[in-house]
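We store sequence, tokenised fold; for instance:
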Amino acid sequence: MSQAFDVVVIGAGPGGYIAAIRAAQLGFKVACIDEWKNAAGGPAPGGTCTNVGCIPSKALLQSSEHFDHANHHFAEHGISTGAVKMDVAKMVGRKDTVVKQNNDGILYLFKKNKVTFFHGRGSFAQANAEGYDILVKGDKEETIKATNVIVATGSNARALPGADFDETQILSNDGALRIGAVPKKLGLIGAGVIGLEMGSVWRRLGSEVTVLEGLPTFLGAVDQQIAKEAKKAFDKQGLKIEMGVKVGEIKTSKKGVSVAYTTAKGEEVKLDVDKLIVSIGRVPNTDGLNAEGVKLKLDERGAIVVDDECRTNLKGVWAVGDVVRGPMLAHKAEEEGVAVAERIAGQHGHVNFNTIPWVIYTSPEIAWVGRTEEQLKADGVAYKAGTFPFLANGRARALGDTTGMVKFLADATTDEILGVHIVGPMASELISEAVVAMEFKASAEDIARICHAHPSLSEATKEAALAVDKRTLNF
């Protein structure tokens, strides 16, 4: 006889596993299905984020940053190291260990919260009187019953037409995280988050890195004052970024990969590299879900169509994360997962898209929340701006990292914070204060009046808030 559950979650990425845990906390009988496998063939919950995305990329970024500091910055602190070498295999092994720790942590959380885990691919079999039959294909095939279903199947890397991923020479984010030796020349198509982060890793380790971007503007979604500051830093580091290019034929051979492209000026160029990482976005993952079998509505991109509360066109079926509309961010998926579990319980789950932070974990880090100056101008919103450079921050000087600034944008009349944008050290941590402030509809004056610890990088946040009213104290 089939097992029956109040809630079945398909996918154990950030949206799925969090939704399952929250539903269990609310008293539901919950199952979560996920097919990711580790090297030994065992379960590896956590989705793209944990296995081939957020977590492993940050592990490599951290290792490569240590290497870069040892080679280029330790001497100024009086530290002599001699010749510094990087053991790439050990670096990748550490990354794999970090990933496994996260996989195991999720399995522990399932056990702690009494979530039944099924290792395999979940799909809709059919609707029934009480809800849905869900087929699980793993080591064995079985069917379970669900009153409510939460689809959290994530997304896949988008391939460039005519250049399919072989994960040996033409790499997605997956293959980019498994490069076994430092390539002499590395090419990247796409100057977004993945392109800049992976480019930074291998540039620090000695690769000659060229990033090709089709759009004419660098980091077009980022406040352009911040983006230009970041671009100056990347140029200084030796990361070659070409904007406005049109990529043509891509050929592979025993020697490597050849990319033909046209520059923004119309020049025909051929780029020869050892490996090519393609990071031109991601597509919703609905393959194998049997959406058509139960008439689950998808849009033209293949994403599951949902309303503002993540309800699909089917009663009792919800969807969250990368597989639906909105930014493809792990923390956005988590918030939707919690909200949906609470809505199933009759509560009022809430996700505010206007206060979802964005982060690029390069050096300098880039983080922002709310609207950019360009968006405010386009919307005709009267605003005030204030900036403060890390060059004038005592903690940043002590760290030896004074690149970048904090920027506040506030309503010209009410002083309500409309956006905060940071490029510089620990921007990923500093942005949280801005998120909290905006959730509570704080004014720039509110942040300016709050005591910040000295010396700390967060003082730059306070000073930028002061700058909105043209009264910085340290610049």
Notes: The longest strand covers residues 116-127.
